[in-house]
Amino acid sequence: MELEASFIKECAGRVGFHACGIAEASALPDFDATLQSWLSHGYNADMQYMQRNADKRGDPRLLYAGARSVISVLVSYKPIQTVEGPLKIARYAYSVDYHLRLKQMLFELIAEIKKRYPDFSGRPFVDTAPISDKRWASAAGLGWIGRNTLLVSLQYGSFCNIGEVVTDSSVDKYDSQVENRCNGCDLCVSSCPNQALHCVDGRYMLDATRCTAYNTIENRDERLPEGLHTGGYVFGCDICQEVCPHNKKAPATVEVEKEKIEKIQRLFDATEEEFDAITKGTPLSRINYRQWLRNLNQGTPSRDHPFSQS
Ligand code: SF4
Ligand code: SF4
């Protein structure tokens, strides 16, 4: 079945996605070599799962038999409000768990497409399956992979969640990859307090072992690595994104309730019960109370020097 690409994009807009692009399903050029190089440097830290299904990450035809197209979608999460308080937390933590929200939106997108194409079938993916969301979003023309190793959209920057629907249908018009607009900028690389962004054979890579975002969330050890500079972050880290000129000019899109910000900031001195209640259903529930206390004690937040992020 061949679908009209403009109709798919209209459907994505109706569902609430900020952007949609479509790429032909094939093996992503260079993907395997880049992944193997990243793994061989040990930059995946404890993320052993990145070694599994490496072939499927760059070729959705191995994940979904008969796949012909990848419909990539993006939703910005840059908050409208200024966030203030003692706790420095990555911006995405103020929204609902994006895995759930995006998955639901992808099912709605499939339902919209089926209104015109009842036989349409597609499989939605968000982060958890072995498919490289950002590389496919780039292949579908939604942006380029910046030196911060994230997808950067010309309009929405990198504060975005990405997902995709892989389908066995083709479309009448595929999108092309957009050119890299980092244009000699090096701000993300030079701003990282841990020198976690490296250029290897002309490609920028994230060394997760040195990254605050990885260590405050995925790392389950008793202690954060010796010498890790958290910049005060206690969950995630946005330093290499905050400095990006494309994020500075990107529109704020998400209104976060003041009560929600205040509630999350109350985690400063929460008991375990309060922690579980406040973080339930939010991205913060990815860590447990023991990790939270570890991050708090080593991330040095302070009521005397509150954090402000606009
Ligand atoms: S998230 Fe923070 S620690 Fe990780 S690469 Fe970016 S600036 Fe560096
Ligand atoms: S900060 Fe500069 S180098 Fe880094 S992703 Fe943004 S534009 Fe590219």
Q: How would you sum up the global shape? A: globular
- The class by helix and strand makeup works out as alpha+beta
Instruction: Please describe the biggest sheet, giving its number of strands, its sense, and whether it closes into a barrel.
Output: 4 strands, antiparallel
> What gyration radius follows from the Cα positions, in whole Å?
20 Å
Physical arrangement of strands within the biggest beta sheet: 2-3-9-6
Number of helices: 12
Q: How many independent structural domains?
A: 1
User: How many strands appear in the DSSP assignment?
Assistant: 14
Helix content: 25-40%
Mean pLDDT: 92
| Ligands, ions, cofactors | iron/sulfur cluster
Cα(first) to Cα(last) distance is 46 Å
Which H/E pattern describes the elements?
A: EHEHHEEEHEHEEEEHEEHEHHHHHE
Q: Low-confidence parts lasting 5 or more residues at pLDDT below 50?
A: none
β content, as a range? Answer: 15-25%
